[in-house]
Amino acid sequence: MNYSNRVDDSDRQRPEQRFTLFARTPTRFVQAGETRLAYQAFEPRGGFDETLLLIVGHGGQLHYWGEQFVKGLVQAGYRVVVFDNRDAGLSEKFDHLGKPDLARMWYHHTCRQPIKPPYTLENMARDAVALLGELNITDAHIIGASMGGMIGQLVAARFPERTLSLTSIMSSSGARKLPDPDRDVLALMQSLKAPRQHDQRQHELRVRFWQAIGSDRHGSDAYFDDLVAYTRARADHPPGVDRQLAAIWASGDRTRLIRSIRVPTHVIHGRDDALFPLAHGAHVADQIGNSELSIIDHMGHAFQPEIIAPLLSAVLRFLERH
Protein backbone atom coordinates (compact mmCIF):
# COMPACT_ATOMS: atom_id res chain seq x y z
CA MET A 1 0.00 0.00 0.00
CA ASN A 2 1.53 3.28 -1.06
CA TYR A 3 1.06 6.54 0.77
CA SER A 4 3.16 9.51 1.75
CA ASN A 5 2.99 12.56 3.98
CA ARG A 6 3.78 14.97 1.20
CA VAL A 7 1.10 17.51 0.44
CA ASP A 8 1.05 19.38 -2.84
CA ASP A 9 1.19 23.09 -1.95
CA SER A 10 -0.90 23.88 -5.03
CA ASP A 11 -3.84 22.06 -3.38
CA ARG A 12 -3.27 23.46 0.10
CA GLN A 13 -5.76 25.80 1.74
CA ARG A 14 -6.61 26.69 5.31
CA PRO A 15 -8.28 23.58 6.81
CA GLU A 16 -11.48 25.45 7.70
CA GLN A 17 -11.95 26.42 4.05
CA ARG A 18 -12.70 22.80 3.20
CA PHE A 19 -15.39 22.74 5.89
CA THR A 20 -16.91 26.20 5.50
CA LEU A 21 -20.47 24.85 5.54
CA PHE A 22 -19.96 23.37 9.01
CA ALA A 23 -17.75 26.18 10.34
CA ARG A 24 -20.34 28.84 9.49
CA THR A 25 -23.47 26.93 10.49
CA PRO A 26 -24.48 27.38 14.14
CA THR A 27 -23.94 24.28 16.24
CA ARG A 28 -26.88 23.67 18.53
CA PHE A 29 -27.14 21.49 21.60
CA VAL A 30 -29.95 19.32 22.89
CA GLN A 31 -30.36 16.92 25.78
CA ALA A 32 -31.11 13.68 23.93
CA GLY A 33 -31.96 11.17 26.61
CA GLU A 34 -28.87 10.72 28.76
CA THR A 35 -26.53 12.55 26.37
CA ARG A 36 -26.08 16.20 25.48
CA LEU A 37 -25.56 16.14 21.72
CA ALA A 38 -24.16 18.77 19.37
CA TYR A 39 -25.91 18.94 16.01
CA GLN A 40 -26.41 21.03 12.89
CA ALA A 41 -29.48 21.09 10.66
CA PHE A 42 -29.64 22.11 7.00
CA GLU A 43 -32.92 22.83 5.25
CA PRO A 44 -33.54 23.34 1.52
CA ARG A 45 -35.13 26.48 0.17
CA GLY A 46 -38.86 26.12 -0.23
CA GLY A 47 -39.28 23.61 2.58
CA PHE A 48 -38.91 19.84 2.76
CA ASP A 49 -40.97 16.69 3.14
CA GLU A 50 -38.48 14.27 4.71
CA THR A 51 -35.48 14.33 7.01
CA LEU A 52 -32.17 12.52 6.68
CA LEU A 53 -30.32 11.73 9.92
CA LEU A 54 -26.62 11.17 9.24
CA ILE A 55 -24.71 9.10 11.83
CA VAL A 56 -20.93 9.40 11.60
CA GLY A 57 -18.38 6.68 12.28
CA HIS A 58 -15.86 5.79 14.98
CA GLY A 59 -14.15 8.86 16.42
CA GLY A 60 -15.74 11.02 13.74
CA GLN A 61 -17.29 14.45 13.91
CA LEU A 62 -20.21 15.92 12.03
CA HIS A 63 -18.00 17.56 9.38
CA TYR A 64 -16.65 14.16 8.27
CA TRP A 65 -19.53 13.90 5.79
CA GLY A 66 -18.03 16.72 3.73
CA GLU A 67 -19.63 19.78 2.18
CA GLN A 68 -20.30 18.24 -1.22
CA PHE A 69 -22.26 15.34 0.23
CA VAL A 70 -24.43 17.39 2.60
CA LYS A 71 -25.06 20.14 0.04
CA GLY A 72 -26.06 17.55 -2.55
CA LEU A 73 -28.63 16.04 -0.22
CA VAL A 74 -30.06 19.44 0.69
CA GLN A 75 -30.22 20.52 -2.95
CA ALA A 76 -32.25 17.36 -3.63
CA GLY A 77 -34.91 18.69 -1.25
CA TYR A 78 -34.15 16.94 2.03
CA ARG A 79 -33.61 18.37 5.48
CA VAL A 80 -30.28 17.02 6.70
CA VAL A 81 -29.36 16.63 10.37
CA VAL A 82 -25.76 15.82 11.30
CA PHE A 83 -24.45 15.41 14.84
CA ASP A 84 -21.46 14.43 16.93
CA ASN A 85 -21.90 11.06 18.61
CA ARG A 86 -21.44 10.90 22.36
CA ASP A 87 -17.78 11.18 23.41
CA ALA A 88 -16.79 12.92 20.16
CA GLY A 89 -16.71 16.41 18.73
CA LEU A 90 -18.67 18.90 20.81
CA SER A 91 -21.09 16.38 22.27
CA GLU A 92 -20.99 15.26 25.90
CA LYS A 93 -17.88 13.40 27.03
CA PHE A 94 -18.10 10.31 29.22
CA ASP A 95 -14.75 10.61 31.01
CA HIS A 96 -16.42 9.74 34.31
CA LEU A 97 -16.74 6.17 32.99
CA GLY A 98 -12.97 5.83 32.85
CA LYS A 99 -10.51 4.76 30.17
CA PRO A 100 -11.14 1.22 28.87
CA ASP A 101 -8.36 -1.36 28.94
CA LEU A 102 -8.32 -1.93 25.18
CA ALA A 103 -5.62 -4.61 25.28
CA ARG A 104 -7.67 -6.69 27.72
CA MET A 105 -10.89 -6.04 25.81
CA TRP A 106 -9.27 -7.05 22.52
CA TYR A 107 -8.13 -10.31 24.13
CA HIS A 108 -11.66 -11.05 25.32
CA HIS A 109 -13.06 -10.03 21.93
CA THR A 110 -10.77 -12.39 20.00
CA CYS A 111 -11.50 -15.20 22.48
CA ARG A 112 -15.24 -14.55 22.11
CA GLN A 113 -15.60 -13.70 25.77
CA PRO A 114 -18.07 -11.07 27.01
CA ILE A 115 -16.88 -7.47 27.12
CA LYS A 116 -18.23 -4.83 29.48
CA PRO A 117 -17.69 -1.50 27.72
CA PRO A 118 -18.34 1.90 29.32
CA TYR A 119 -21.42 2.09 27.08
CA THR A 120 -22.79 0.20 24.09
CA LEU A 121 -23.81 0.81 20.50
CA GLU A 122 -27.36 0.32 21.77
CA ASN A 123 -26.88 3.39 23.98
CA MET A 124 -25.63 5.33 20.95
CA ALA A 125 -28.62 4.21 18.88
CA ARG A 126 -30.92 5.49 21.61
CA ASP A 127 -29.03 8.81 21.52
CA ALA A 128 -29.88 9.12 17.81
CA VAL A 129 -33.56 8.31 18.32
CA ALA A 130 -33.76 10.70 21.28
CA LEU A 131 -32.27 13.44 19.08
CA LEU A 132 -35.08 12.91 16.57
CA GLY A 133 -37.59 13.19 19.38
CA GLU A 134 -36.13 16.40 20.74
CA LEU A 135 -36.23 17.91 17.23
CA ASN A 136 -39.90 16.85 16.86
CA ILE A 137 -39.03 14.57 13.94
CA THR A 138 -41.45 11.66 13.80
CA ASP A 139 -39.40 9.54 11.41
CA ALA A 140 -36.36 9.90 9.19
CA HIS A 141 -34.19 8.21 6.62
CA ILE A 142 -31.18 6.92 8.57
CA ILE A 143 -27.78 7.13 6.86
CA GLY A 144 -24.79 5.76 8.77
CA ALA A 145 -21.14 5.30 7.85
CA SER A 146 -18.83 2.66 9.37
CA MET A 147 -19.66 2.61 13.10
CA GLY A 148 -22.53 4.94 12.20
CA GLY A 149 -23.83 2.20 9.91
CA MET A 150 -23.77 -0.22 12.84
CA ILE A 151 -25.72 2.29 14.94
CA GLY A 152 -28.11 2.79 12.02
CA GLN A 153 -28.68 -0.97 11.84
CA LEU A 154 -29.67 -0.92 15.51
CA VAL A 155 -32.01 2.04 14.98
CA ALA A 156 -33.72 0.30 12.05
CA ALA A 157 -34.06 -2.98 13.96
CA ARG A 158 -35.13 -1.56 17.33
CA PHE A 159 -37.12 1.48 16.15
CA PRO A 160 -38.65 0.63 12.75
CA GLU A 161 -41.49 3.08 13.39
CA ARG A 162 -38.93 5.93 13.42
CA THR A 163 -37.05 4.69 10.34
CA LEU A 164 -38.23 5.49 6.81
CA SER A 165 -35.23 3.71 5.32
CA LEU A 166 -31.69 2.69 6.20
CA THR A 167 -28.54 3.42 4.21
CA SER A 168 -25.54 1.56 5.63
CA ILE A 169 -22.25 2.83 4.14
CA MET A 170 -18.84 1.12 4.50
CA SER A 171 -20.11 -0.81 7.51
CA SER A 172 -20.25 -4.38 8.80
CA SER A 173 -22.37 -6.98 10.57
CA GLY A 174 -19.53 -7.92 12.90
CA ALA A 175 -19.70 -11.56 11.80
CA ARG A 176 -16.61 -13.52 12.83
CA LYS A 177 -16.07 -15.07 9.41
CA LEU A 178 -15.50 -11.73 7.69
CA PRO A 179 -11.97 -10.74 6.59
CA ASP A 180 -9.69 -8.64 8.78
CA PRO A 181 -8.44 -5.18 7.83
CA ASP A 182 -5.33 -4.81 5.71
CA ARG A 183 -2.13 -5.45 7.70
CA ASP A 184 -0.81 -1.92 7.08
CA VAL A 185 -4.06 -0.52 8.46
CA LEU A 186 -3.82 -2.68 11.59
CA ALA A 187 -0.23 -1.55 12.15
CA LEU A 188 -1.21 2.11 11.87
CA MET A 189 -4.12 1.57 14.25
CA GLN A 190 -1.67 0.18 16.80
CA SER A 191 0.64 3.18 16.37
CA LEU A 192 -2.26 5.53 17.01
CA LYS A 193 -2.98 3.68 20.27
CA ALA A 194 0.63 4.07 21.43
CA PRO A 195 1.51 6.60 24.18
CA ARG A 196 0.69 10.11 23.01
CA GLN A 197 3.32 11.40 20.62
CA HIS A 198 4.48 14.92 19.86
CA ASP A 199 1.64 16.89 18.25
CA GLN A 200 3.22 16.95 14.79
CA ARG A 201 3.96 13.24 14.98
CA GLN A 202 0.35 12.53 15.93
CA HIS A 203 -0.83 14.65 13.02
CA GLU A 204 1.37 12.76 10.58
CA LEU A 205 0.25 9.37 11.90
CA ARG A 206 -3.40 10.29 11.51
CA VAL A 207 -2.86 11.52 7.97
CA ARG A 208 -1.08 8.28 7.13
CA PHE A 209 -3.96 6.31 8.61
CA TRP A 210 -6.49 8.14 6.40
CA GLN A 211 -4.26 7.56 3.40
CA ALA A 212 -4.14 3.86 4.25
CA ILE A 213 -7.90 3.37 4.58
CA GLY A 214 -8.84 5.69 1.72
CA SER A 215 -8.48 4.70 -1.89
CA ASP A 216 -4.91 5.19 -3.06
CA ARG A 217 -6.26 5.71 -6.58
CA HIS A 218 -7.12 9.27 -5.56
CA GLY A 219 -4.58 11.95 -4.67
CA SER A 220 -6.28 13.12 -1.47
CA ASP A 221 -3.19 13.89 0.66
CA ALA A 222 -4.11 17.58 1.00
CA TYR A 223 -7.69 16.72 1.91
CA PHE A 224 -6.64 14.29 4.65
CA ASP A 225 -4.09 16.79 5.97
CA ASP A 226 -6.82 19.43 6.28
CA LEU A 227 -9.32 16.93 7.73
CA VAL A 228 -6.94 15.99 10.53
CA ALA A 229 -6.02 19.63 11.24
CA TYR A 230 -9.64 20.82 11.35
CA THR A 231 -10.74 17.85 13.45
CA ARG A 232 -8.04 18.41 16.04
CA ALA A 233 -8.72 22.15 16.16
CA ARG A 234 -12.49 21.70 16.54
CA ALA A 235 -12.57 19.08 19.30
CA ASP A 236 -9.97 16.36 19.85
CA HIS A 237 -10.77 13.76 22.51
CA PRO A 238 -8.79 10.49 22.27
CA PRO A 239 -10.36 8.87 25.39
CA GLY A 240 -13.76 9.05 23.71
CA VAL A 241 -12.36 7.32 20.64
CA ASP A 242 -11.23 4.43 22.87
CA ARG A 243 -14.63 4.12 24.56
CA GLN A 244 -16.39 4.07 21.18
CA LEU A 245 -14.02 1.32 20.02
CA ALA A 246 -14.87 -0.70 23.11
CA ALA A 247 -18.57 -0.34 22.24
CA ILE A 248 -17.91 -1.68 18.74
CA TRP A 249 -16.02 -4.73 20.02
CA ALA A 250 -18.68 -5.42 22.64
CA SER A 251 -21.45 -5.41 20.02
CA GLY A 252 -20.01 -8.61 18.53
CA ASP A 253 -21.83 -10.42 15.74
CA ARG A 254 -25.04 -8.54 14.89
CA THR A 255 -26.15 -10.95 12.13
CA ARG A 256 -29.28 -12.15 13.92
CA LEU A 257 -30.37 -8.60 14.72
CA ILE A 258 -29.70 -7.40 11.17
CA ARG A 259 -31.91 -10.16 9.81
CA SER A 260 -34.83 -8.61 11.69
CA ILE A 261 -34.63 -5.33 9.74
CA ARG A 262 -37.73 -4.83 7.61
CA VAL A 263 -37.40 -1.22 6.44
CA PRO A 264 -36.07 -0.54 2.91
CA THR A 265 -32.30 -0.83 3.16
CA HIS A 266 -29.45 0.28 0.93
CA VAL A 267 -25.95 -1.06 1.57
CA ILE A 268 -23.13 0.91 -0.06
CA HIS A 269 -19.53 -0.30 -0.01
CA GLY A 270 -16.29 0.61 -1.71
CA ARG A 271 -14.41 -1.94 -3.74
CA ASP A 272 -11.10 -0.61 -2.32
CA ASP A 273 -12.05 -0.61 1.37
CA ALA A 274 -8.98 -1.70 3.38
CA LEU A 275 -10.60 -1.39 6.83
CA PHE A 276 -13.81 -3.33 6.12
CA PRO A 277 -13.19 -5.28 2.90
CA LEU A 278 -16.09 -5.57 0.48
CA ALA A 279 -17.26 -8.87 2.01
CA HIS A 280 -18.45 -6.92 5.07
CA GLY A 281 -20.93 -4.84 3.11
CA ALA A 282 -22.04 -7.81 1.01
CA HIS A 283 -22.77 -9.79 4.18
CA VAL A 284 -24.95 -7.01 5.59
CA ALA A 285 -26.95 -6.88 2.36
CA ASP A 286 -27.33 -10.66 2.28
CA GLN A 287 -28.92 -10.71 5.72
CA ILE A 288 -31.64 -8.13 5.00
CA GLY A 289 -34.51 -9.24 2.81
CA ASN A 290 -35.61 -5.79 1.70
CA SER A 291 -32.17 -4.53 0.69
CA GLU A 292 -29.98 -3.67 -2.26
CA LEU A 293 -26.20 -3.46 -2.56
CA SER A 294 -24.28 -0.75 -4.41
CA ILE A 295 -20.54 -1.23 -4.95
CA ILE A 296 -18.56 1.89 -5.77
CA ASP A 297 -15.33 1.42 -7.69
CA HIS A 298 -12.20 3.18 -6.36
CA MET A 299 -13.89 3.95 -3.03
CA GLY A 300 -12.09 3.09 0.20
CA HIS A 301 -13.10 3.79 3.79
CA ALA A 302 -13.13 7.58 3.56
CA PHE A 303 -15.30 10.34 2.15
CA GLN A 304 -12.64 11.54 -0.25
CA PRO A 305 -13.83 14.38 -2.51
CA GLU A 306 -13.32 12.21 -5.59
CA ILE A 307 -15.91 9.61 -4.54
CA ILE A 308 -18.66 11.99 -3.42
CA ALA A 309 -20.32 12.24 -6.85
CA PRO A 310 -20.91 8.47 -7.34
CA LEU A 311 -21.75 8.06 -3.64
CA LEU A 312 -24.29 10.89 -3.71
CA SER A 313 -25.81 9.55 -6.92
CA ALA A 314 -26.27 6.09 -5.37
CA VAL A 315 -27.83 7.52 -2.20
CA LEU A 316 -30.26 9.79 -4.04
CA ARG A 317 -31.40 7.08 -6.47
CA PHE A 318 -32.39 4.90 -3.53
CA LEU A 319 -34.08 7.71 -1.60
CA GLU A 320 -36.14 8.73 -4.60
CA ARG A 321 -37.63 5.21 -4.72
CA HIS A 322 -38.44 5.15 -1.00
Description:
The protein is of the alpha/beta class and 322 residues long. The protein has one domain: Alpha/Beta hydrolase fold, catalytic domain (Rossmann fold). 42% of the residues lie in helices and 15% in strands. The chain has helices at 15-18, 20-24, 67-75, 102-110, 121-134, 147-158, 183-192, 199-213, 221-235, 238-251, 255-258, 278-287, 308-321; strands at residues 28-32, 35-42, 51-55, 79-83, 140-145, 163-169, 265-270, 291-296. It has an eight-stranded mixed sheet with strand order 1-2-4-3-5-6-7-8, sandwiched between helices. A hairpin with a 2-residue loop joins strand 1 and strand 2 (35-42). The longest helix has 15 residues, at 199-213. It is globular and about 50 Å long.
Mean pLDDT: 91
Q: What are the segments in which pLDDT stays under 50 over at least 5 consecutive residues? A: 1-11
Biggest β-sheet, characterized?
8 strands, mixed
What's the architecture in CATH terms? Answer: 3-Layer(aba) Sandwich
In short:
The protein is α/β, with parallel strands linked by helices and 322 residues long.
Question: Main attributes?
Answer:
single chain; 322 residues; alpha/beta; Rossmann fold; eight-stranded mixed beta sheet; 13 helices; 8 strands; disordered N terminus
